[in-house]
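Bumping my old thread because nobody answered last time. Still need a sequence for this structure:
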C-alpha cells in the first residue's frame, strides 16, 4: 500500500497547488493544430514506437506487451516539479495531466484494439474500467487537494511543500523496495534489451512532443516533453494482466519505471545548462 498511498499524497499536493484560471489560460492558448499534434504525441507515437522496438529488438511477447502498454498509458500521477525545477510550468503540467486523464478512457482502448489487429487478435478494454482507475487514482485526490486549497488556503500553502516531499520520498522508496523484493522473479526475465528499449521509448516520447507540437513557447514545450516521458506504469501493469493476459510483462514496465526518471532528470539538466549558456554575458 506504500506506492498507492504515495501517489494519493502527491495528487492531493498537485490539487493544492492547482490554479484553475492559469490551467485554463494555458490550454486556451493552444490551437487545433497543436491539439492534434499533442494527441498524436501523447497516445499514438509512444505506443507505435513500442511496437516498432518489439520488432527491431530481440524481445519476447510479454516484454513487447508491457512496453506497449507503457507507451499507450500517459499521465503518470507523479509530481515532476522536483525533476524539472526551473522553467517547469506546473500549471500547464497539471492541465496536461487532467486532459490526458479525460482522454485516456477513450484513446487507450482504441489504441490497444488497433494494436491487436496488427497481431490478428481482438482485444477490447472497456472504457469504463479505465475511467474508474483514472477517477480513483487521479481525479478524487486532485479534487480533494483543490477543495483543501479553497477552504483552507493557509494550511494548503504550508502543507503542499512537505506533502510533495513526503510523497516523492515514499514513492521512490516504495519502488526500490518493490524491485528488491521481486529481484528473484525479475532476475531470470530481465535482459539488456529492456533498459535499451525503455530508454528509446522515453526519448521517443520526448521527441514526439518536440517535433509534433513545435509552435508552443519554449518553457511550455519543455514542460510537455518531460510530462510525456512520465508514462503511467501502474496502469500498464494492471491492464497487462487483466486484459492482455500475458504473464511476464512486469520486467518491461519495471525497466521503464527505473529508466524514465533518469531521462527526465537528464533532460531537465540539459535545459538548465542551455539556459545558463543563453544568459551568460559575453566578455568584452
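Sorry it took so long. Here it is:
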Amino acid at each position: 500500500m506504500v506506492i498507492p498511498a504515495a501517489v494519493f499524497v502527491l495528487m492531493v499536493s498537485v490539487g493544492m497547488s492547482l490554479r484553475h484560471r492559469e490551467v485554463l489560460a494555458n490550454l486556451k492558448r493552444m490551437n487545433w493544430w497543436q491539439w492534434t499534434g499533442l494527441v498524436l504525441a501523447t497516445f499514438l507515437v509512444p505506443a507505435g514506437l513500442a511496437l516498432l522496438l518489439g520488432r527491431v529488438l530481440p524481445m519476447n511477447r510479454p516484454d513487447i506487451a508491457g512496453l506497449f502498454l507503457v507507451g499507450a498509458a500517459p499521465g503518470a500521477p507523479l509530481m515532476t516539479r522536483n525533476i524539472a525545477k526551473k522553467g517547469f510550468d506546473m500549471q500547464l503540467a497539471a492541465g496536461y495531466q487532467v486532459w490526458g486523464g479525460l482522454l485516456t478512457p477513450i484513446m487507450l482502448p482504441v489504441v490497444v484494439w488497433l494494436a491487436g489487429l496488427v497481431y490478428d487478435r481482438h482485444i477490447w478494454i472497456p472504457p469504463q474500467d479505465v475511467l474508474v482507475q483514472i477517477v480513483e487514482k487521479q481525479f478524487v485526490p486532485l479534487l480533494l487537494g483543490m477543495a483543501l486549497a479553497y477552504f483552507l488556503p493557509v494550511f494548503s500553502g504550508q502543507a503542499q511543500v512537505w506533502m510533495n516531499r513526503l510523497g516523492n520520498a515514499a514513492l521512490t522508496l516504495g519502488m526500490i523496495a518493490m524491485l528488491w523484493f521481486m529481484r528473484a522473479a525479475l532476475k531470470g526475465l530481465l535482459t539488456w534489451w529492456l533498459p535499451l528499449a525503455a530508454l528509446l521509448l522515453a526519448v521517443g516520447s520526448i521527441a514526439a512532443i518536440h517535433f509534433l507540437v513545435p509552435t508552443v513557447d519554449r518553457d511550455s514545450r519543455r514542460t510537455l516533453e518531460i510530462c510525456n516521458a512520465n508514462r503511467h506504469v501502474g496502469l500498464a501493469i494492471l491492464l497487462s494482466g487483466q486484459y492482455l493476459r500475458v504473464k511476464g510483462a512486469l520486467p518491461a514496465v519495471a525497466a521503464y519505471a527505473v529508466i524514465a526518471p533518469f531521462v527526465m532528470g537528464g533532460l531537465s539538466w540539459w535545459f538548465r545548462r542551455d539556459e545558463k549558456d543563453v544568459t551568460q554575458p559575453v566578455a568584452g
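The chain has a mean pLDDT of 83. Let me know if any region looks off to you.
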